[in-house]
Amino acid sequence: MGKAGTKGVSRADREGQIIDVAVAEFGDHGYAGVSVAAVARRAGISKPLIYSYFDSKDGLYLACVHRVGGLLVDAVAAARSRSGTTGHALDTLSALFTAVEGCRHAWSVLYDPALPPDGEMRDAVNHYRERLTAMGAAGATGLLTRAGHDDPLDHQLLNRVWQYAVTAVMRWWSDHPDQSAADMTTRCARLLAALGTG
């Protein structure tokens, strides 16, 4: 990863470079395990420069959350608009894999278990998580409705199963970084076909 503190770089570009470095740092170590000094070292810049852009570690983390949250929400929303009434599960997973392949720490930043339980950072994380959950719930409802099932508890249960399944898949992928987005899509297509839900 390139250094963020080179002269002649616009503020917007440098800010983006710092966020890229910080996403990797937070993704590797979690919110609790990261200091501004560590991000500055990794970026090859001074701590005061980070403070001048983001005010604090929390401000930097918020910028990272907005980067990765927007990336994941946009990817899933685009997949939903493309998939129509068939293939929603695989289209959604493929979109997530493609988004995360370009930003390998996106999922771990948005689903960081070390994040404080309340406050502005938690609110920001919850905003994106809730949007992802709502899209998943809409997909589950659509699947069951097309199958003629209207029991709201069925809808609730399938949504819960889907949320846990996606989390498990993303964690498995994190443990197998040699797998590409295409590999993961192919693997999940086989599993979904075997389960009869592809």
UniProtKB/TrEMBL annotation:
**Native organism:** Streptomyces incarnatus
The entry's protein name is TetR family transcriptional regulator
- Record has Translocase as a keyword: no
Q: Does the keyword Transcription regulation apply?
A: yes
Q: Which UniProt keywords apply?
A: DNA-binding, Transcription, Transcription regulation
Query: Where does the record place the HTH tetR-type domain?
Result: 12-72
InterPro entries named in the record: DesT_TetR_C, DNA-bd_HTH_TetR-type_CS, Homeodomain-like_sf, HTH-type_TetR-like_transc_reg, HTH_TetR
Q: What is the lineage of its organism?
A: Bacteria, Bacillati, Actinomycetota, Actinomycetes, Kitasatosporales
SUPFAM superfamilies, A to Z: Homeodomain-like
Q: Which residues carry the record's DNA-binding region feature?
A: 35-54
Gene3D superfamilies per record: Tetracycline Repressor, domain 2
